[in-house]
Amino acid sequence: MNNTWGDVAQYDPVTWNWIIAIYLFMAGLSAGSLLIGLGLRWWSNTDDKSESAILKAAALIAPVAICIGLACLVFDLTKPFHFWLILINYNFESVMAIGVAVLLFYIPLTFAYALMVLRDELAQWKLGFLTPIATMLLPWRKPIELVMFVLALGVGAYTGFLLSAMNAYPMLNTAVLPALFLVSGLSAGAAANTLVALLMFNSNGHEPHMKTMHGMELPVVFAEMTFIFMLFCALYFKGGAAAMALASLTTGVWAVVFWVGVVAIGFGIPLLSMLMPAHSRHTKGAMVTVACASLAGVLALRHFIIYAGQSYIS
Amino acid sequence: MSQRYVIVHDENKCIGCQACSVACRSENNVPDGVSRLQVHIQGPFGEAPNLHFKYHRMSCQQCENAPCVTVCPTGAAYIGDDGIVSIKPEKCVGCMYCVAACPYKVRFMNPETKVADKCNFCKDTRLARGEQPACVDVCPTDALVFGDTNDNNSQVAKMLLQRANYQDSTHLGTKPRVYRIPTKKGGIVS
Ligand code: SF4
Ligand code: SF4
Questions:
Q1: Between the CA of residue B123 and those of A11, A215, B27, B109, B136, what are the distances in Å?
Q2: Residue nearest to atom 6 of ligand 1 (CA)
Q3: How sure is the predictor about A3, in pLDDT bands with cuts at 50, 70 and 90?
Q4: Residues of A in contact with B43 (CB under 8 A)
Q5: What is the CATH classification number for the domain harbouring A254?
Q6: pTM
Q7: Residue B72 contacts residue A165 (beta carbons within 8 Å)
Q8: Residue B44 lies in a domain
């Protein structure tokens, strides 16, 4: 029977689509790889004047990922050519406006930092004319790193707050979401750093930095799993419409994405790889496979949260 | 704010004829495929021959704590001096944050203007001329009443004092200003 009141497509609660999921992924990846790169640099505190392959990878990924993400975001606007409106009008009650303000500082800094860290590569990439700028920026390295670290924490968490601010969606409106997005950004960042360091900066996978980073993988994966578990527990205990959202784990295509993408590929492959004998685990092929699995898992998690999260409304 | 405009929908008087919806579309030039206002019909309930339906108005609830206004990054979604939640088209970038955040799912992107759109009680047209919103004027059974509850002598103020009424999803703290007078006949919606 046709209804008499007209088209109801607009009442579909799923408003934001996969493009936003990719943006959330890219923003988390950019922040995550930078946080890891900087963390390792401070932690290991080597006197070695040459930059580590991991830091080079992070310095490259940070600006590229955030720019790809923002391009997705802008072209998903219904008025993409009016995006500048969002740069001149700020409602600081809005998480999105706060995010824009943070990115406004974060993005130029990631570019400046890439120039500094990759100053020796610039000439090879036919970007030699940028070397003087890199040299000019070098004395500011310490303060830039500090500010960038704080901003990267902000970027990583803000993508979660962006969703958790919407109180009509019980799965999104939870306190752990920003923390989950931050740690899963870290795991994506570590994976991408490994990939780029191996494939672009000729890392052999056995540098001390690489080892430290792999040492962090297990705790990060456990933190991620804990936060996901807490998220679903919160829904279960809240009951009512929130508990209905648990159906997303058992029904529909997003349940498959969760169990196959997030759990089997994203957690299973990296965890199982730790059981492999050390010599085969540290081959390039194994490391690339594991890194790709982690990235795919985080991407799947963003899609699951966006779609399943919006499908249940209270 | 000196005014507090509300709409009351009497679900006993409503017959689900959609005249309000059609009037709204023509008054506000709402394109096909999207709506500022619909009346959803549920049912039938009861046993033949005594069947009855439930009528549910779907339109912006004019929340006093409007999530769409809080999330809008540019301030395009705003609450005016008259308390009415509406949109400044020239500030809207079309990020759809408000559409996602509206708990009542009554906000949409206007396919022609590319700007977020929804009911604003005909603020710029009929209200500005001192008339009632189009839906209220056209309703054949007078199921809709519009007015200012800050005016104690208004029909809406008296109605809300005297008649049992409810609002949608009050648990979200939005303080909606669309009030509904429930049908006297029951019915179980599973
Ligand atoms: S019903 Fe939706 S569009 Fe209307 S004021 Fe409330 S949140 Fe905004
Ligand atoms: S779509 Fe327009 S009105 Fe809605 S939140 Fe974005 S800028 Fe504001």
A1: 23, 61, 11, 19, 13
A2: B63
A3: confident
A4: none
A5: 1.20.1630.10
A6: 0.94
A7: no
A8: yes
